[in-house]
Structures are given as C-alpha cells and as structure tokens.
Amino acid sequence: MKTLITLIASAVFTLVSYTLSAANLPDPLKFAKVETIVDHYIDATINGETELLDYLFTDDFSQSTPNNKNKELLSKNQVMKHLKSLKNVRHACDTNVEFVEKNEDCSIVKVTKYFSNFKRVDYVTVCNTEDGWKINKVLVAYPEN
C-alpha cells in the first residue's frame, strides 16, 4: 500500500512539473499546426483573447487595408498594440474559415467575419518558419454585400 501511495504521489509530481515547465516555454505555439494558429488569430481578433498574441506573427508581419486606392499599411507593433487594447472585448459576429491554399510551407486562409451591418474578409498568410507556423501578412477587405 505504501508503494502504491508513493507511486501515485510520484506520478502527480511528475505531471505537475511537466505542466509547469510547459507553461514556461519560450514559444508555446512553436509546434502548433496551421489550423491552431488561425484559431488563435480569430480568438484574438474576435474574442479579445491576447495571451498568445506575442507568438502569432513573424517579425516582418504587416497588415494592409486597401481603401479607395490608398493602402493603409500597419506594422506588427501597431496591430499588436491595437489587439491588446481590445483584450477581453468580444465582437458580435459569425466567422467562416476557408483555406484558399494549404501546403507544408505556406497557407492562405480566408477568414470572413459577418457583422450585423457589414462583412470583413481577412486573407491571412501563414508560413512555416524555423519557429513554427507564424502569420506573415493579413490583407483586409470590406466587400459589398
């Protein structure tokens, strides 16, 4: 009986140690699949979940929004600052995710967000880098209904 209790205590200790060490990884999304990265992007942009935001984008990330022949270009820092300002803010919209292109090196994902009076489409380019899958570029469009 004493051996069983020791074995159970050791198993629990090992599990707790593993869990705590996994939480301190430099990049918790390094081994995530492309679908997981897209899910975290949607969680950040729609649901205000910013915990993993620092790990989603490449260093040269940019977001562009064509607007009446003008092209608004935002850097990684600008987008992250904006998303962090919306922490825990949930937007009332439905989303649809469609992979336009998917391969081992790079994927293009169409994320459509249906709000009550308009539609927003994010074309998200996700690349497989040495640090895992990262979002490299987002092109934002507001198509007419």
From TrEMBL:
The keyword Nucleus does not apply. Residues 1-22 form the signal peptide. Pfam families: Lumazine_bd_2 (PF12893). Coiled coil: none annotated. Keywords: Signal. The keyword Signal applies. InterPro entries: FrzH/put_lumazine-bd, NTF2-like_dom_sf. This is Nuclear transport factor 2 family protein. It comes from Sphingobacterium hotanense. The lineage of its organism: Bacteria, Pseudomonadati, Bacteroidota, Sphingobacteriia, Sphingobacteriales.
